[in-house]
Write a structure and sequence with these properties.
Elements (H helix, E strand, L loop, with lengths): L1 H6 L5 E6 L1 H4 L9 H16 L3 E6 L2 H8 L10 H29 L4 E6 L1 H5 L1 H16 L3 E6 L13 H11 L4 E6 L4 E2 L11 E2 L1 E2 L4 H8 L11 H13 L3 E6 L5 H6 L6 E3 L9 H6 L5
Parallel strand pairs: 1-2, 1-5, 2-4, 3-4, 5-9, 8-10
Antiparallel strand pairs: 6-7, 9-10
């Protein structure tokens, strides 16, 4: 088993996802700059090792909400609530990128923004162009920062959570490894916050229905959109596309370099290329089942 962990050291193209709850202070909802700064430093260090790295970040809506002093995202109608959410995203995404740009430039790295919707993957030309953009940015040594384009995304074209989005990005760019930084240590047999007897699972060699169903019973923080269910969907996309995936706790951002040194933290989902897996078709059918 440890042999697979050892091989993680050799991964060359890595996608890292961080969730909203990992980026902000629980008490206030404001950005946690110490954690953000540590994340950027870790990513720059990965890049300095000659590896290619992509960041999928949440947090735009939360940052936007905070900027205009909104406590909740509500509206008289569903359409109004959606407009409020999208307005918050428009404000927050610019602020979030400003913080990232500033921090990355302190370590002499260039960051770029890529905003995606379902259409980016489902439409053949869009997908081809997105792939080329990522390829070119990584060739230039730039660190792409990806988020869902919440400003225009409606239910029909939204991916809906960044666990799924990060796996889609990993599949699109033929990454070697996807790391989901979350507020949980990894996969358990049950929700450890409710069941003290829940057992930790270090490695998943094959993603059976039993594992997929484990995710359905649990949802995570009230800040992000993803619980364990979205992480299992991400694992399905990643492993089927020949990408190893790790879930680890973002409590200590330093977990990133420890994982890349092959240390045994988090849950490792081992890649199993599925020749019948069709990424555009899978994305097209998200939310339908």
């Amino acid at each position: 088993m440890n042999n697979i962990r050892e091989q993680i050291k050799d991964k060359k193209k890595i996608v890292v996802k961080i969730g909203s709850s990992s980026l902000q202070h629980n008490e206030t909802g404001d950005l946690d700059y110490i954690r953000l700064e540590k994340l950027v430093r870790e990513l720059c260090d990965i890049s300095n090792q000659g590896k290619k790295v992509v960041l999928v970040t949440s947090g735009a809506i939360a940052v936007g909400k905070k900027a205009v002093n909104l406590k909740t995202i509500e509206g008289q109608t569903q359409a109004e609530a959606m407009a409020v959410k999208q307005a918050c995203s428009a404000i927050g995404q610019a602020r979030l990128m400003m913080a990232y740009q500033k921090l990355f430039s302190e370590y002499n790295h260039v960051a770029a923004q890529i905003l995606m919707t379902k259409n980016t993957i489902v439409d053949n030309l869009n997908r081809y162009n997105a792939h080329n953009t990522f390829t070119q940015l990584l060739k230039m040594g730039v660190i792409p920062i990806v988020n869902e384009n919440d400003t225009v995304a409606t239910y029909e074209i939204e991916i809906g959570d960044n666990d799924t989005l990060s796996a889609i990005v990993a599949a699109l760019i033929d990454a070697d490894l996807l790391i989901l930084l979350s507020d949980i240590d990894g996969l358990y047999t049950d929700d450890p916050r409710q069941n003290p007897d829940a057992e930790f699972i270090e490695q998943v060699d094959e993603l059976t229905d039993e594992f997929m169903n484990m995710g359905k019973a649990s949802t995570g923080s009230n800040v992000g959109t993803g619980g364990m269910n979205t992480k299992m969907i991400a694992a399905k996309i990643a492993t089927s596309s020949d990408v190893d995936m790790l879930i680890a706790n973002s409590r200590d951002i330093g977990v990133l370099h420890r994982l890349l040194e092959g240390e045994n933290e988090g849950t490792l989902f081992v890649a199993h290329r599925d020749e019948s897996f069709d990424l555009p078709e899978f994305v097209q059918n998200l939310h339908k089942n």
